[in-house]
Design brief:
single chain, alpha+beta, 49 strands, 27% strand, FAD/NAD-bd_sf, NAD, nucleotide-binding, oxidoreductase
């Protein structure tokens, strides 16, 4: 807990935007205080006289409140209730019923309890997205709305109007915008990331301000995924500080923030102040504070000349103005500001003016974060004393203060310009002319560029540039002394700008100081990169509803309930629940799998293969696309036939395998592995859209619409023939790797293919998912006279491994080519090109010591090799050599075989094909298990069984 420094409470009796009719109790660092709806935690703490919020991350120095919104770099708090946030600025936390918080010294702590709140997301596709509802944003949004466009207006604050929500013209503009039928306005919504093709991410804080009164059915936060045809950026500007010694003491605050606390929350930041500025805007803050009752003891302006109207107003309010002046340091006692040491013409050296608040303004930096994220350029403007947007971005306009403008009238006019520019680029009819609201305001004089107060080396160690990271002028000098010249390198050396605020007040200042120390112009020094997120976004908000049971959706086949009734043990394959085995009478997995394997090889079994990826590939160029995707030829496949195919990546390594059915001259059905179904569809689309967009072909997933049931074993022909009596299933009429259409009952279409993943006679029955349970039950019933046995994925793995059929991702690891798998026959030598073809010619892809798929038989006939076990050269002394032990490969699949009556395995072994018949060793713990290298085919190498 931080020992909070306090001053007398300073809530004014009237004014502000808060709801004084209601009072909210809240707790901070264990003490209960009160505030009002409309407060932030920061404004409520200041109203209660709390100045010190926490301590700094590295030095443990006291930290107060320096800003009034997301630009604040010091007021870090952890929220304990009614929701949990490990570290957020107190300036952005809405005061709400049940709020409990504590100061955080730079390191938040994640809660050990699950977050019970709801989060969700929403997609938008507006014609125009306007980010920021200040003067410029509202005008831009109105232009688009008047033209009949679909307009989305988002703003991070709780009410529109930007820096002046109380302005007379704001409510009228908002009412007009809301009245249009195609407009949407979101408050408390921060656009935190800009990406390609008009894509913007924003997070809405929907119920944080309601606290314990929040309805439980409404999500706490919502991520908005916005794809806009045109974007107007009206994000305003951030005030920047001037760096001086001990500028981190609680009580040092930005001038705009002090004015904001007064006007929004009716809170005075202190009782007496000194204002240190390089621009006119701080005078407005000083005059407002003085009028409200704060004693403003002096305004110290670095400029030699100040506008006469400002000095006259200051004199009228009894405020001394010192031009060509500096605040050398903040004077502190008890961990907070008690005075300021000044230097100015006519002042004695060492002059200290008593005050409890030191207000600073070094000018304004346009908030170009979103512009920069969208790859917009910025350049330093000497007149504005800031980096401003330059050049153009396709489909993007930046307006108002974000465009470097400093008056409300100029922002209104520029917002109108930006809105009309967006309409013109959309080729939209422009609305009838209307002028912008008239605003009575003065035109400010040019600011001076002042990054820091020159000081002795000893003061540089307490002249803080980044208050969250405890990074000082001395740290920048040290980085430059170490050879850093780029501001990007200085950032990483010093960590400036890497905190939660992403350098909103420190980044440009650090660039300016770096340029000064290097003796170059700041335009030449440049800035660091603005990256998303603009403000911190919780992982819970990004996850939305995709957590818990919804994190990885569970997919079930149409036969799932039948499997449950039969006591199946399930495993997760991709997102699918697949039966692994069906235990009977207390069987363990090994016993059940041995029984299932024996039943399939000796009679008939049935598998639910509905999880296989099924992709419809259609169009005149479908044959050409598949020829380019697969290593073997698919264009030569006849209608009514099936072909096994292999897909490789550009590196020539196996990516997936499966079967392809040619349905028509311009249509194929592609089957993929279960786990790769989505990835392969994406792979097809990626290559089609980026490399071969001229091909007239369409790919569509029908995985969820099709159920597939392999009926496998010597009696499978009897079962399939009984259910589909109109189909001739004889070898003569129904050849291997062919398919036939038939019906179930009177009119249920069924497609049956002669495909075998077990080496046995097999028929794959494909039917629409809606009819799947009925067809499955009919197959099971027809198979009962033959002892039909449902089998799961574990038995399927054993059966395929006995035939040497690899599983992609288990027997491959991304470094395995078709040749390594013994599948050179699946690589066409006729096709001019396909993905991976060129890589096959690389020397490394044809090296003799490549790992190749082989079979392994433990010579003791009983040891089942653990999958993943390493393989080494045979050891005559039966002892493991000292490390490092050269490894030849590893075991990829290992099972106990009912057919063989012993264990067997598949493995990737260096130069494996040349080692057939050799003896090798597999270390299992401290024991070496001797194995013989064999062919990958253990059962029916002649292939006689597949025809029954």
């Amino acid at each position: 807990m931080t020992q909070s420094y306090r001053v007398p409470a300073h809530r004014l009796p009237e004014g502000g935007r808060i709801d004084r009719d209601r009072t909210i109790e809240f707790t901070f660092d264990g003490t209960t205080y009160t505030g009002h709806p409309g407060d932030t935690l920061a404004s409520a703490l200041l109203a209660n006289g709390i100045r010190t919020i926490t301590t700094s991350v590295n030095l443990g120095r006291p930290r107060g409140i320096t800003g009034s919104w997301a630009e604040d770099a010091t007021a870090q708090v952890g929220v304990d209730a009614p929701f949990v946030e490990p570290m957020v600025p107190a300036t952005t936390v809405d005061l709400c019923p049940g709020l409990a918080a504590h100061g955080v010294p730079g390191w938040g702590k994640l809660s050990a309890d699950p977050d019970p709140a709801r989060y969700d997301s929403l997609h938008h596709h507006p014609d125009v997205l306007v980010v920021g509802a200040g003067a410029a944003g509202l005008m831009a949004a109105l232009m688009a709305a008047r033209a009949g466009c679909t307009v989305l207006l988002v703003d991070e604050r709780s009410e529109p109007g930007g820096a002046t929500p109380w302005a007379s013209w704001v409510q009228g503009a908002v009412d007009e915008f809301d009245a249009y039928p195609r407009t949407t306005r979101l408050t408390r919504t921060t656009a935190f990331g800009g990406y390609d093709d008009g894509f913007v991410l924003a997070v809405e804080r929907r119920t944080d301000h309601l606290g314990t009164d929040a309805p439980p059915h409404i999500s706490r936060q919502r991520v908005h995924r916005i794809r806009a045809r045109r974007i107007v950026i009206a994000t305003g500007a951030h005030e920047r500080p001037i760096v001086f010694a001990d500028n981190d003491l609680p009580g040092v605050m930005l001038a705009g923030a002090a004015a904001d606390y007064l006007r929004r929350y009716a809170v005075l930041a202190g009782t007496s102040s000194v204002v240190f500025t390089a621009c006119d805007s701080a005078y407005d803050a000083a005059f407002a504070l003085a009028t409200a009752g704060m004693t403003v003891r002096a305004i110290v302006d670095v400029r030699p000349v100040v506008s006469r109207d400002l000095t006259e107003r200051a004199r009228h309010l009894g405020i001394d103005v010192h031009t060509s002046g500096m605040v050398l340091r903040a004077v502190g006692e008890g961990g907070a500001v008690t005075g300021a040491e000044l230097s100015a013409p006519g002042l004695p050296a060492g002059t200290i003016v008593d005050c409890d608040t030191l207000i600073t303004s070094g000018g304004w930096n346009p908030a170009v974060h979103l512009w920069s994220q969208l790859r917009g350029a910025i350049a330093f403007d000497e007149h504005a004393g800031a980096f401003v947007p330059t050049g153009d971005l396709p489909n993007v306009e930046i307006v108002g203060a974000a465009n470097g403008l400093v008056t409300t009238g100029a922002c209104l006019t520029d917002g109108r310009r930006g809105g009309l520019a967006a309409l013109r680029s959309l080729r939209h009819t422009l609305p009838e002319y209307r002028g912008v609201p008239r605003v009575d305001e003065r035109t400010p004089a040019a600011p001076a560029v002042c990054w820091r107060v020159p000081a002795e080396a000893s003061s540089a160690t307490t002249s803080f540039v980044d208050l969250q990271r405890d990074a000082t002028v001395a740290d920048i000098a040290r980085a430059i002394g170490a050879g850093m010249r780029s501001v990007e390198h200085v950032k990483r050396y010093t960590t400036i700008g890497t905190g939660h605020d992403q350098g909103k007040t420190s980044g440009i200042v650090a660039s300016g100081i770096t340029a000064e120390l290097l003796g170059i112009g700041i335009g030449d020094a440049g800035t660091t990169t603005f990256r998303p997120p603009y403000t911190p976004v919780s992982f819970a908000a990004l996850a939305g509803r995709d957590r818990g049971a919804l994190y990885d959706p569970v997919r079930r086949t149409p036969i799932h309930d039948w499997h449950v009734e039969r006591g199946a043990v399930f495993e997760d394959v991709g997102q699918w629940k697949r039966p692994r085995y069906y235990p009977r009478g207390g069987e363990d997995m090994e016993s059940a799998v041995l029984r299932e394997c024996g039943a399939v090889r000796g009679g008939v079994g049935i598998l639910d293969g509905s999880t296989l990826g099924v992709i419809d590939v259609a169009g005149p160029d479908a044959p050409r696309l598949l020829d380019l995707l697969y290593t073997n030829m698919m264009s030569s496949l006849a209608v009514g036939k099936v072909r096994y195919g292999v897909m490789c990546g550009p590196d020539g390594m196996v990516r997936d395998d499966g079967t392809v059915l040619r349905v028509a001259d311009d249509r194929y059905t592609v089957y993929t592995t279960t786990g790769n179904a989505a990835a392969i569809l994406d792979w097809m689309e990626e290559w089609h859209q980026t490399e071969w967009p001229e091909l007239r072909v369409w790919t569509t997933s029908v995985t969820d619409q099709v159920a597939t049931f392999p009926v496998v074993g010597p009696r499978s022909r009897d079962v399939v023939g009984a259910v589909f009596a109109g189909l001739d299933v004889s070898n003569e009429a129904f050849e291997f790797m062919g398919w036939r259409d038939t019906t179930f009952g009177a009119d249920v279409p069924v497609r049956i293919a002669r495909i075998s993943f077990s080496g046995e006679l097999a028929f794959e029955v494909n039917v629409g998912a809606g009819h799947a349970p009925t067809v499955w039950r009919a197959l099971v019933e027809a198979g009962e006279p033959y002892g039909i046995t449902p089998y799961g994925t574990e038995t399927m793995h054993v059966l395929r491994a006995e035939k040497g059929y690899p599983i992609i991702g288990q027997d491959t690891d991304g470094t395995v080519s078709p040749h390594d798998l013994g599948m050179s026959w699946a690589v066409s030598k006729k096709k001019p090109d396909f993905i991976g073809k060129r890589s096959f010619a690389r020397a490394s892809n044809t090296a003799a010591d490549r790992k190749q798929l082989v079979g392994l038989l433990p010579t003791d006939g009983s040891t089942r090799l653990p999958e993943g076990s390493q393989i080494i050269d045979h050891r005559g002394d039966r002892t493991l050599p000292p490390p490092p032990v050269p490894m030849l490969g590893h075991v990829t699949s290992s099972y106990r075989s009912a057919e063989l009556g012993r264990p067997f395995a598949l493995a990737l072994v260096k130069g494996g094909q040349a080692r057939l018949g050799d003896r090798l060793d597999v270390p299992i713990g401290d024991v070496l298990c001797e194995v013989e290298v064999t062919s990958t085919v253990f059962v029916d190498p002649e292939g006689a069984r597949r025809d029954g």
